[in-house]
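SAMPLE LOG
Freezer: B-3
Tube label: C17
Construct: single chain, 364 aa
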Amino acid sequence: MSKLFSPLKIGQLELSNRVVIAPMCQYSAEQGDATDWHMIHLGHLALSGAGLLILEATAVSPEARISPADLGLYSDANEQALARVLKAVRQHSAMPIGIQLAHAGRKASTAAPWEGGKQVEPDAGGWQTEAPSARPYALDDRPPVALDDAGLARIREAFGQTARRAARLGLDMIEVHAAHGYLLHQFLSPLSNQRTDRYGGSLENRMRFPLEVFDAVRAAFPAEKPVGVRISATDWVDGGWDLEQSVAFSKAVAARGSAYVHVSSGGLSPLQKIEVGPGYQLAFAREIKRQVEVPVIGVGMITTPEQAETAIRDGSVDLVALARAVLYDPRWPWHAAAALGAQVEAPKQYWRSQPAAYKNLFAA
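STRUCTURE (predicted):
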């Protein structure tokens, strides 16, 4: 029996297999509103046979967006636009769907990657960024505004309000984005957090605001539905956020009700030196899994069924998340199930595509 295609529960949410489609920014929204691109993109992925689909980083306020074209869930219009997409997707797929809630902090107000990814000036459609401290991400970026108490309260409420919108949309779970150099990660890392108040300095203080945000989301979302956290296990910079601190943070969010920890790395500093290779982040996930009692999702250049199967079988992770690999091959779960002798769910309209060599591939 394939471990990758065995069922698992995250909290009370039942997944048919351990393949997760990770959040992937599309930079295709209009004023935060989901568009026809999202309907095509998400509908496509919802037919893939994965156990769980997590929507891209979704901004909790206009200034929380990475780019002017980021998906948002901070207005009635945003909510209505996403409801339209989800209604269409759900008509043809029973796959559980989660959403990643995010604030970009000092990495906000940038152009889409295919437009260069540089910071966008306010007179060109950008906005003033905000962060724990007035330290820019890149040397040529405008410094962000250091958040005061009122700003922190505003952001906590924005996360909570967006979680309530996610609940109204019937989404199955929420992932709080505390990775990749965005706002909550900026509070965690001593490289970006130079505060001298109770939100800076010690590890306990640097964790305080991310934990408050998690609490706000958890309180605003139905208790029977899971809320988890995505983290960067290391900044890949000396003196920055690291694995030991990530273990402490993972324990802290698990104690507050986090249903899982999704382990990535990097993104906080342009000085990062990442040792890239197949499965290069799994060692971080393995150590966190060893020390916390909630499921752990692993990610990072996992491209083959054998890699994914081994990562779960050897106890490194409980679930495997795919991003670029599933964009390149949107039927990756089908092909993985075929390679591992497992079954996968497929829409009845596609049953006749089952290859003769894999007569029991599709679960009816």
